[in-house]
Amino acid sequence: MRKAYIAGNWKMNMTPSAGAAYAAELAKAAAEAGADVKIMVAPPFVTIPAVVEALRGSSIIVAAQNMNDHKSGAYTGEVAPEMLKDLGVTTVILGHSERRSYYKEDDAFINRKLLLALEEGMDVVLCVGETLEERESGKLEEVLSTQLVGGLKDVKAEDMEHITIAYEPVWAIGTGRTATPEDADSAHAFIRGQIAKMYSDDIAQKLIIQYGGSVNASNVKALMAKENIDGALVGGASLSVEKFLPIITYDK
Ligand code: PGA
Fold first, then answer.
1. Partners of 91 in the β-ladder
2. Which of 33, 38, 64, 162 has the fewest CB within 10 Å, making it most exposed?
């Protein structure tokens, strides 16, 4: 049985003071509502300490949205995994489509970060997904399998328990256009099948696959009802407790 895993990716939103107020409100509301899903929030780097502090004593996970592929050194403007761990960050999102497209991150670069995160004992949410053009030209499966093989290169079977995959069709992110639950489920089934080929059926069955792309309170239930959809990576609708609470309590 896979435990539902719902994550809020704040992207470049929320100052430290706004993040702390939000986190305290979320922890209280989630506890009162009896939310029993695994919950994660990913604030911008500078907002992380205030959020970790506000979430002390709560089981809500604090993740980073990115990290560097080196342990330390002369990389101006970058953040190392050890710095994140020192703050209490256990998890990092890697390969988000905004990083792939705006900052030209490719699979090899994402893979170097992912291997370093595992070496540092962190959990990873690896994002994969196709553009509209790729989907319309019949390349969905090719794109997903290239991103999975490239992103997970040299990841050992025993480390797969630290990996979550987020399927985020690029055309559905921030556009209000969601994949239908059926389309999303079939992409998730394909991803699970690839993982079974790369590793084993057992690892594929245990793998948590989140869907991301315009998830909100009104579509989350239908998405989560699908066999292969185990969670959500939520952007816009994670930015207020009012919108995020009904998502993390979709089963209530
Ligand atoms: P969205 O973003 O929910 O605003 O579409 C999702 C994401 O990019 O993780």
1. 63, 123
2. 33
Beta-sheet pairing, 91-94 with 209-212? unpaired
Residue numbers in the known binding site for substrate are: 9-11, 174, 214, 235-236
Q: Ligand 1: distance of its center to the CA of 217 in Å?
A: 13
pLDDT tens by residue, 103-131 = 999 999 999 999 999 999 999 999 999 99
Q: Report the distance separating Cα 109 and Cα 246, nearest Å.
A: 36
136 catalytic? Reply is no
Question: Can you give the pLDDT at residue 178?
Answer: 83
Pick from 133, 153, 231: which is nearest to 198 by CA? 153
Q: Which band of pLDDT confidence, cut at 50, 70 and 90, is reported for residue 177?
A: confident
- As a whole number of angstroms, the distance between CA 232 and CA 236 comes to 12
Task: Give 20's contacts (C-beta < 8 A, 6+ positions apart).
Answer: 50, 51, 53, 54
